Amino acid sequence: MHEPLVERGRGATGNPAGRFERLAIIAERVDDDDDRPPVATEIYRDSSKSILSYNDSPDVPTDVFVNPYRGCEHGCIYCYARPYHEYLGLSAGVDFESRIFVKENAAALLRQALMTRSWTPRVIGFSGVTDPYQPIERRLQITRACLDVLAEFGNPVGIITKSHTVTRDIDRLSTLASQQAAHVMVSITTLDDRLAGVMEPRASRPARRRASPRPP
Questions:
Q1: Cα separation of 145 and 151, whole Å?
Q2: 3-state class of 176 per DSSP?
Q3: Closest CA to 164 of 126, 191, 199, 202
Q4: Do 29 and 53 touch, CB atoms closer than 8 A?
Q5: Residues 20, 45: contact at Cβ < 8 Å?
Q6: d(Cα 31, Cα 96) in Å, to the nearest integer?
Q7: For the segment 43-90, what is each residue's pLDDT rounded down to a tens digit?
Q8: Fewer CB atoms < 10 Å away: N or C end of the chain?
Q9: In the chain, where are the structural domains located?
């Protein structure tokens, strides 16, 4: 009788889990009044030890960014950030828009960065390679927690998004704006809802992005 085959490592003595742990599968609507079926998204923990990303391109006016997430549920077909998922061993296609990595400790890391002696207050951009207000932000509120930190320090912020969810944080943004420390830009590629549904399938529809925000 043959002994059962046992898988042995070449030099390893064990097979620990990978650094990215799946936390949940979440189905979230885009907006409060969104009538489209929610889409399931796999959520993974990102255990990054720092939160500030620096940029030295002369074409980008902001030189430091916070990316609360990796990947983006909006699924814009033209997104330049898609290849970044390949550094995680994932696809720049479906994986980029359905496997999202969340930085649960982003606010704590941001506070730590702003408290260092070397930090010079300047505009922090949200975000360089993801949308800070993609659908799961409605539940996780990581961007909102970061705004709390920025409001506490009075550090200026610049936000660019395709989501009406940014209006949820008018209270935090108003606090920063009272110090002339907030700048929000909502990008609109087209006013055609049908075309937007093809190009930016899970972003807020153009009419929603143009709508006046509700009072806080």
A1: 10
A2: helix
A3: 202
A4: no
A5: yes
A6: 21
A7: 999 989 999 999 888 888 889 999 999 999 999 999 999 999 999 999
A8: N
A9: 21-210
